[in-house]
């Protein structure tokens, strides 16, 4: 019989363990139009959406299926209010960092828990084929997350993979796409060679004036020392001492060579291709889904790529009326050339982003003939790189291009992700199910350092890292569901074991024997050989009770007892719980027949979840927080050596999050307009901090990790969706979300009043991302000196470096500058908005992400604004420097004598973090099924899609979204991907 579905209804989904299948709601007569209840995935099951009391955002596959993304983390960006993304790097295969409702921990992890088909997944999101994902759900409040207890403080992301379908015909789908990969963040504007030499000359001249030289002598000194004393190389065809005279570049000067661009040899146009084939179907008793996928992406930086093969098989079968079984198996193999990410090596000589950005515009990466200026090549026709002397800021003797081409860094990763379940129907109301998840990850990394130039020269080096991770999750769930008249009950009782095993092996050797062989056997001297094995265990008991009356009055309660091996036995067990309530006002008689209000629900929850996932600098300490640890391997010849490594607090225990949530869900005009307004308050207690200890205590690192602090995160979340126009041939929809976040430390104990960490100071009344910096005042119009507010300790101390400007007491010495709070990295508002247009077979969708408020410390720009660059690049903003008494500017005079003050770390380098970005856009055309049926096709769609297409920031070159704490690094910036593709179904 052909079923007729309501326009706004969707298939009911019944989910236990890993099973996801469609089920019809009973009706009085088959002639009636079927009413379909929308259900969503929740912790350890599913629930009717109208009875939810928790904060649960569902994103279905159709919302990201046509996008050229390698991992699901990219689809989370902008998908839900309250979720903030720190953009992933441009390295192919990289994943972004995710924060849900703020910062739950200072020293621990802030990453959400990932649940894949019912059990935890701790691997990289890049190991999951996005085309295999049916949906993902973002759980944000205690009512939604508390069943995951100690792992849920940072929120939970439930990923559900695709299954087969009962009955009907089998379906074969083939998806393919190919496209361009380029850089999405533009480079800072920098001065050229013609502008550069006079600027450095000016800094040298002003430095001589500052130490008492006459103008004539200072000018002569600058002209004489510009090349041999400072910059070392002259890119023009005039004598060194005649290149700049009295501040003017010689008008007869011509460049000897023009290959001064260090970016060109390293930056390229990348290429991405993706192919995926899946087959699904089923009988009335058994469903099946299988897929194979291949992704190959070369980044826009040379020697950066990612290649991935995936295979999946998933089968669910109703063996008997009382027994259902299911299993799924994912196999993943990936290979990648890793470019240096830059974040962990910000100023390293081999950081390509650092040196192509910061090397002066007067140096060529290639060697040239001293007389003809022609580029030099060796006997094999290979270009010869320049490693000659350069200025102090230009990596003399090094060549980042040559080193990156000669070195190698390769990752090979292998994943087996398996799930299985059994479901026993004991009676019509009681179901017992058991689920097993077993994952194995083998991550291997091979690195080679060449023997020609760089850190490993002249011997060469090779290193190998092997990490094997295994996770085993086994749970048993007893679910009782019953209806008494208008009263609906669901009771869940569960037990779960979780086991994580970590094996690490590392070897490093130097002394390369023969060329073109980076295997360890080809190296003579072993420098390091070490291994490590760690284990982590968790056991849990949990229960949940849901109740509703006519789907109108809603109650939910849950509790979970967790024990973690990270803590001592007497503090190992801890209960986590939640209670939630809701009132579905739409179900009341006075709204039941309203044509204006189609949905209205008030809901709230309160509860506690935890965090035992620590991020200490010592890996062993992550697993054994309560134990003192010691470092082996410090041997003296044959005499063994052991060093005290970490002093532990044996009473250390969980960080806990007490969460409250209040929300209003609404729908208007037959759900043409839907939305949610939500307020949350998360209080983190027993925060783990590295508590400073006196040096005399003899404690490594001079700190002990303790539970010492309390902090809150609170804010509003607004989500809105609207079908502006809805006709049979044309639909125009808008969507938007906005979130606020306020973070504040409310308590520090054990006599601690503050903890300074780089540019931040942790203290009561401030957030963990509040800047603590020297206070920049500006530039003295009289002489161009850099000015800072004076610290109180020097306010009444007469000195030549303290003066009054415009009635304000200031100093030209950054060491006497006042330290004070200087704003926060946390934005005032962040979110996304977008639109979708569907006209007949055409579809267009776009999404913008945005941020308003907050500050970024732009250290990249700081480097480019040196008042005395000795071979380093300069921003074009340096052209606004002070040159004339009375001049009003915010750029100090160039001066070799005072540049350390001008470039000191201070509030001068803070910039607004506001941005708006066209995050993605997709245009597609779906052929009419009647037109393509003659070719055996049931559907055919052509797609044009783009990621990271455009952005507007406070400064060209700035990337405000690269970190949550507002800092910047010379890193592999995100890629722009534009692809074309096709989806076919048979």
From TrEMBL:
Cellular-component GO terms for this entry: cell outer membrane
Compartment annotation: Cell outer membrane
Keyword Transport found: yes
Membrane topology listed for this record: Multi-pass membrane protein
InterPro entries reported for this sequence: Beta-barrel_TonB, Beta-barrel_TonB_sf, Plug_dom, Plug_dom_sf, TonB-dep_OMP_SusC/RagA, TonB-dep_OMP_SusC/RagA_CS, TonB-dep_rcpt-like
Domain TonB-dependent receptor plug residues, every copy: 49-156
UniProt keyword list: Cell outer membrane, Membrane, TonB box, Transmembrane, Transmembrane beta strand, Transport
Any Pfam family matching the protein: Plug
Domain TonB-dependent receptor-like beta-barrel residues, every copy: 382-871
Source organism superkingdom: Bacteria
UniProt keyword annotation of Ribonucleoprotein present: no
Similarity comment text for this entry: Belongs to the TonB-dependent receptor family.
Protein name in the entry: TonB-linked outer membrane protein, SusC/RagA family
Origin species: Chryseobacterium wanjuense
